[in-house]
Records
---
Amino acid sequence: MTSQSSAVTSRPRRRAGALVAAGALVLACVVTGLVLKWPFGDSDSDGKAADKNVGTSTHGGTVGLAMPTKSSERWTTDGEAMKKQFEAKGYKVDLQYGNGDVSRQVSQIENMIDNGHKLLVVAPIDGIALGDVLERAKKAGIKIIAYDRPLLNTDGVDYYVSFDNREAGRLQGDYIVHKLGLDRGEKGPFNVELFAGSAEDPNTPYFFDGAMDELKPYIDKHQIVVRSGQTELNQLTTLRWDGAAAQKRMNELLSESYTKARVDAVLSPYDGMSLGIVSALRGAGYGGEDRPYPIVTGQDAELASVKSINKGEQAQTVYKDSRRLAKAAVRMGDAIMTGGKPKVNDTTSYDNHEKAVPSYLLQPVNIDKSNTRILVADGYYTAAELEE
Ligand code: GAL
């Protein structure tokens, strides 16, 4: 597992500013009744242009979709969206969920190979455990797209389609810095605790490194203090991104390091964990007038978390529209299947230890209480869903 890189790469503030501006543009379009157009790449017009390159595929062929779990809302949305879109292009689809069980996912992929599927789209539970089975797939002439999560240590993978994962982490770190006022002269020190995702998910270090690009300069200056002393990635990972495990660790942190001191912010990489962390905080007396919740970040804009944000509990999430990711994957898959050239926009960031995997990355969007309306304007949720 890579550790946090020491180089503090380019400030995302300009980019974050651009995203805020883009968010404002989305809202302005809604308010003025203009047709809403996604300002972050992978637009419909992109799609049409790319589709022209590959023609219309009516020949069929089966696509295997290997998704990691159904226990998180996002993966069912991703799986269903891809299924629908591949079917609309004339493909048969075999959609399988691994239920967080690595050997189950391996055997699902083996079955896909045995059944003669032509293309696999794989979001791994464990990014390094699929090397052998993907080698078999490659030998059988099957094309492989890594979906959302990289596939490591295999040259079997042809393409990667995802969001800019490091940027997702940066948005979380930047949110904490900004909300604490550190970027506007506040000196602190502020107490912040850090959580990371599952150790087997290759996305985990990207998110963590991105967040630390923002937080580490303040940790180094002691303006952010991690009272638990736990700042290394291997101390912070959360098996299978489990919310209950995050809740348990937050409880431990609170009783070990915060019986007197207050926790001001918690870096959480994923909504399912953020809700567990918020529960632990509530149990310890946070959430009242005299003891407001700390800033708790998240990712995926899952419905329960967006509601929690609107209630003033979880503070932030990162919106990664699964429908657009699915669309990008389907476009890529269709190009591969029809002998076209898939569109990529990054050829260096995702070296999987065997090769630099050509990637198509979408931009994530920062969401907090001030702009959850973007999700409604974008048709991701209905206003009623957010109010229920
Ligand atoms: C990551 C993914 C995140 C989140 C997390 C937990 O790989 O990029 O968006 O869904 O898994 O499922």
---
Amino acid sequence: MKLKGKKAWITGASSGIGQATARLLASEGADLIISARREDRLQQLEQELTAKGCNVLVAPVDVSDRKGMEQVGSMIAANGGIDILINNAGTMPISPIINGRVDEWEQMIDTNIKGVLYAINAVYPGMAERKEGHIVNISSVAATLTYQSAGVYGGTKHAVRAISDTLRKEAIRYGVRVTDIQPGSVDTELPDSIAHDKIRAAVKDNMYGEDMPNLQPEDIANGIFYALSQPAYVDVSELLIRPVIQEN
Ligand code: NDP
């Protein structure tokens, strides 16, 4: 159990990559704080992990709610802080820019950029004070590449990568490590967040099939755990993980 005695906060733990990471970190002995908006899903996960002996605290929050995130931060600080942040919550309502779906652009910016910053702000000062901590931001293969219809989503993920790398440089002096994880295509509920019917259908059609499988959330959780389980002098700054069949 490589994470025994560590406390980790996972955002977006109600499904997909966040849920798989919660399961893996729990099996490695970490105590967890799990967040998302769907409280029922978090409570199911809490029951499952508690039954296996893990200490789990459910902290439902919308990551785009600045006050709500500050409250979670205060609760974490009052409980002695955390060692690990898995900054994973995200949404992908993509569409061509010509469609002008401004509400969806704002939702992506608020969740994928502001939410990531609010989570960092909630725990980084405490980590810096204790001179120990690891912040893992989940960006995307779209953090370096661009795809039609994904201009705003890709923009948010480019931002997450830039924030990760800047934070990594600044955090060195405080003994805090930063990792940016860049998943390729993973089988999760993420395409369900696409409200544009044609684009959603096209994305789902493009998912890779049984002959050459898509990534599973556990594959990304394994990458996260790799970064977390390195010796203190090692910073896994970036990790890009694709299905073999994914060219771009
Ligand atoms: P899922 O849709 O399965 O999970 C997204 C998680 O984020 C859910 O737990 C959801 O919970 C949470 N979430 C979304 N919006 C908010 C919000 N406003 N406040 C709080 N929680 C929120 O997708 P993935 O597991 O695939 O996504 C996880 C991360 O991985 C995202 O950042 C995504 O961009 C990234 N990623 C995914 C890829 C893929 O192919 N699947 C590829 C590259 C990156 P709830 O709805 O309960 O709030």
